[in-house]
Amino acid sequence: MRRIVVRSSPVHGRGVFALTRIRAGEKILEYKGKLVSWQEAQRQYARSAAEDGHTFFFDLDDGRVIDGAQGGNSARWINHSCAPNCESEQEGSRVFIHALRDIEPGSEVFIDYLLFVEGRQSAALKQLYACRCKASQCRGTMLAPRR
Ligand SMILES: [Zn+2]
Fold first, then answer.
1. What is the distance in A from the centroid of ligand 1 to the CA of 1?
2. Residue 130 CA, ligand 1 centroid: distance in Å
3. For residue range 5-42, what is the model confidence (pLDDT) as tens digits?
4. Any idea where the SET domain is (predicted)?
């Protein structure tokens, strides 16, 4: 039985929604896509310009990136929230999305992307990754806080 569905989201573009009740700790799906270097991801990004602000990149902790635009699955439509109900867990060079708390049918699935961007964060970049999650603790951006 399918547990999730992709449909238009009130937060942004398309989103992923629970079809059934998902319990805290459950593995929901894998974030699939082509494994590329950070440099390749930047070139890819420049080409596609991520026109609607949907990022399909998932940063791995070794600096490589999963590009969900190439061979990705529904996970690439998961929207960002600063108060997410799911989290990503890296297992080797694969990434799985787990529920952080119980998710009711019809609820949208969110993760905190904590995107890392090298170099200067231009106004255009900040605009592109602006967060509209409306959580009370929203930090206003999908980018990771500066270390
Ligand atoms: Zn936010």
1. 31
2. 8
3. 999 998 888 999 999 999 999 999 999 999 999 888 87
4. 2-114
